[in-house]
Amino acid sequence: MVVLNKIYTKTGDAGETALGNGARVAKHALRVNAYGTVDETNATVGLARLHATDEMDAQLAMIQNDLFDLGADLCRPDMEKDAEAEYPVLRMADTQVTRLETQIDAMTKQVEPLRSFILPGGSPLAAHLHLCRTISRRAERLSVELATMEAVNPAAVKYLNRLSDWFFQASRIANENGKRDVLWVPGANR
């Protein structure tokens, strides 16, 4: 259980923060950027939920919880030392990726195949989901870059890859199953 008796600690005043294993790193470190962008994604999901139907809200609530799991995973380096930790280390699982895939497949059956790229917009929910998509893509890029330098749980990277696809299909559902999608018209304003 997390207990926060005090919100500010002053330990980050010199530009450093603690990782999940206690190591101190610069606040601009790639690992911190990766899980910070996951947190940013989570905040935008909260905005999207303000416009969601009950079913989509329930799915978005699960995603928000997953994103905290993902942040916990990314903030803890040294995966090979997980067994030595004083408490169980939280890592993303392939079952979380599979759940997203199942939901994406169900949404895909509800929409017509695309014949054009889609511009972000349509309904307020769709616009927010597109923002979630782009921020989650940035989190994925940062996590993939981090994985070229340090160990990163492969399930975490897969989850982020599927998540942006989930947001895309959910935006189409939010746009009346694609009927209100805003289509790109190449060269329309030349």
From TrEMBL:
It catalyses: 2 cob(II)alamin + reduced [electron-transfer flavoprotein] + 2 ATP = 2 adenosylcob(III)alamin + 2 triphosphate + oxidized [electron-transfer flavoprotein] + 3 H(+); 2 cob(II)yrinate a,c diamide + reduced [electron-transfer flavoprotein] + 2 ATP = 2 adenosylcob(III)yrinate a,c-diamide + 2 triphosphate + oxidized [electron-transfer flavoprotein] + 3 H(+). NCBIfam families: PduO_Nterm (TIGR00636). PANTHER family: CORRINOID ADENOSYLTRANSFERASE (PTHR12213), CORRINOID ADENOSYLTRANSFERASE MMAB (PTHR12213:SF0). Residues 7-173 form the Cobalamin adenosyltransferase-like domain. It comes from Yoonia phaeophyticola. Pathway: Cofactor biosynthesis; adenosylcobalamin biosynthesis; adenosylcobalamin from cob(II)yrinate a,c-diamide: step 2/7. Pfam families: Cob_adeno_trans. Keywords: ATP-binding, Cobalamin biosynthesis, Nucleotide-binding, Transferase. Its EC number is 2.5.1.17. It comes from the Bacteria. This is Corrinoid adenosyltransferase. It is an enzyme of class 2 (transferase). The keyword Nuclease does not apply. One of its GO terms (molecular function) is corrinoid adenosyltransferase activity. InterPro entries: CblAdoTrfase-like, CblAdoTrfase-like_sf, PduO-typ. Belongs to the Cob(I)alamin adenosyltransferase family.
